[in-house]
Specification:
Elements (H helix, E strand, L loop, with lengths): L14 H14 L1 H17 L7 H18 L12 H28 L1 H4 L7 H29 L10 H25 L1 H16 L12 H7 L2 H13 L7 H33 L2
Helix pairs in contact: 2-6, 3-4, 4-6, 4-7, 4-10, 7-8, 7-10, 7-11, 10-11
């Protein structure tokens, strides 16, 4: 029989015990996370006339806007290695993986706030369920990309098998930032509002609808944006094959993994204070 011992001492004073507790809580969260995932997916599309079709409409609309800007001459776009509609569509869909992962921790905690103070359950289940939603949407995105490839008669290389690794890297990066911001976002609504503005800004300094400039301040800022390499390499694997940005991609991924573990620990240790602060 499992015995749970509550102590007034902070988990910061015993990092090894906290890390072990995190691992056991992640394992114990699987069943609840699965149920939360199914509940969220069903509720999201059950009352929508188009159902899962809404997952296709948003990136398609964004792609059409950029195509219009490029063809009308409003936007001067550099020549891309693949048809421009495919370039924008793949970039937009991959960008959504990061944005959704960034949003999931805060939105999952906020939407289940009433349960947190009343029921004792592994809080990690909320994060796992949220990550599952992002992966589900990513699978839908891959279907959409496959249909676009068929329409343009574009044949990817064997590097497409590496795309799940790129998607996972974008997911981990988004979850890491989202987990670190969640405690502050639950206490101050300004964080959520500021995050929307910053996300919009990030869209324009990430090579989603256009390539990294060859010179100037735009080139500098994009090359120092870690999202650039996660997105560029994943899109290269998905479309043209081998990528010239593999080394910075691996460096960003290598830094993201320990930061993700730290963000999970930060989330776990901060949750009791958050629950007390927001009043359940």
């Amino acid at each position: 029989m499992k015995v749970t011992v509550y102590s007034p001492k902070s988990g910061i004073l015993s990092p090894r015990r906290t890390l072990k507790s995190l691992g056991s809580d992640l394992l114990a969260s699987r069943e609840l996370a699965w149920r939360l995932f199914l509940r969220n997916i069903r509720s999201k599309y059950r009352q929508a006339a188009l159902g899962i079709g809404w997952a296709f409409l948003s990136p398609l609309a964004t792609t059409l806007v950029w195509i219009f800007l490029a063809q009308s001459g409003v936007l001067n776009v550099q020549t891309t290695d693949l048809p421009y509609p495919l370039y924008v569509l793949t970039g937009t869909l991959l960008w959504q993986v990061f944005v959704q992962a960034l949003d999931r921790p805060m939105s999952m905690v906020s939407s289940n706030k009433s349960l947190l103070g009343k029921i004792n359950f592994p809080r990690e289940s909320l994060i796992i369920a949220g990550a599952g939603e992002v992966l589900f949407n990513f699978c839908i995105s891959l279907i959409m990309i496959a249909l676009a490839f068929m329409a343009f008669q574009y044949l990817p290389t064997w590097h497409v098998l590496l795309v799940p690794l790129g998607g996972l890297a974008l997911l981990l990066f988004g979850l890491t930032v989202g987990l670190l911001l969640t405690p502050f976002g639950m206490m101050y609504k300004d964080v959520g509002s500021a995050l929307k503005i910053i996300t919009q800004l990030l869209f324009y300094i990430t090579p989603i609808a256009y390539k990294i400039p060859e010179s100037g301040f735009g080139k500098f800022i994009m090359e120092w944006n870690p999202l650039s390499y996660l997105l560029l390499v994943t899109r290269d694997w998905l479309t043209i094959g081998a990528s010239t940005h593999l080394l910075p991609f691996l460096m960003v991924l290598g830094l993201t993994i320990p930061l993700f573990i730290f963000s999970l620990l930060f989330y776990k240790l901060s949750m009791p204070y958050i629950i007390e602060r927001v009043g359940g």
